[in-house]
Amino acid sequence: MLRSTLLLRPASATLRSAFASHAARPLAIAPSMSRLPALSSSSSPYSTSAPSPSSATSANEGSVNVDESALGEYSPRPVRPEFASDKPLDTKALELIDVGVGVHRLPVSPSDYAAIGTVKFLRFFSDVFFRRRYVHRAVVLETVAAVPGMVAGMLRHLTSLRRMRHDGGWISHLLHEAENERMHLMTWMKVCTPTVFERALILVTQGAFFNIYFAAYLFFPKTAHRMVGYLEEEAVVSYTHFLNEIDAGRIENGPAPEIAKTYWHLADDATLRDVVLAVRADESNHRDINHHFADRMVVGEEDLRRPVSPDTLRLCSSTRESTSPSTNLIISSCLVSSRLVSRPLLALDHSFASLLHPMAPMNNVFNSSV
Known about the structure:
The protein is 56% helix and 1% strand. It is mainly alpha-helical. Strands 1-2 form a two-stranded antiparallel sheet. Helix 4 packs parallel to helix 8 (221-247) and helix 4 runs parallel beside helix 12. The model is unreliable at 1-11, 23-51, 55-59, 319-332 and 334-370 (pLDDT under 50).
């Protein structure tokens, strides 16, 4: 009998607090609504009344006027409750956030092995291409990391409309994840400027990954969530290496961008290291939630309004799911192919691998131009 241990904390206090804090906000999708002007007849951002004859700004009588200041009031909110503190977070507070460095959800089913095999296969090419250029790695990979949440949220949104029933609370979490990953990208774009080659790589990679993940979520949604969980595990590892490079002095620990201070509520003297700590904390949250979502699909309880006991979720670590022979054949083929391709590449000489790098090295990490 297959025996495996689930090292990842199922339905942990972090997950419960995240779900509870999200449920406590009935208007979580627009948290800044409290700051919007009252929609009275005199202050509504949309007015269909006929313009004054003396007004030269209206081209047609009865046109709609939009208050641009009201539209720009929305500000994204972080995914972790720690960043909603009234007091700005300093380095010590960021280091106290439990991110579970080294936490790994052991695969137990064929779909789990397919998910982790795909992630390890992609991780190899990322390591070969970027090496220790962690800021450039973050820029490129965050453009891909923001795709799964949007794709999954979109598909579940359409499913909810088509079946005319509640989605179980998944959509808002998934779209929030996508927005959070996009904010990571906006932050790193203030730290470095991608090369022309990297921009072309983003264009190709995002287009391919969107369509592949779209198809994967249509037919294998549990495997898709498991893959994202493993991707986030690797993201935590990468950002931990990033921190080690900063601590070793190989990457300059310059000031944090203003966008990062505002989004994560960081102290005024926040540095790049603080930003990496905050981003790593976000990635650990996505890791836990996506593994939790996959486990819920295994036990057949996808409604987040209904709690699932940790003992029930723990069964996911010891129960091998039944899959059809054709699915097992596809999964086995993917794993064998990834091993056949990756093993010869691991033997590449460093000088040959360096040819894959863009011409421009990361010699100015703190170029704030976009």
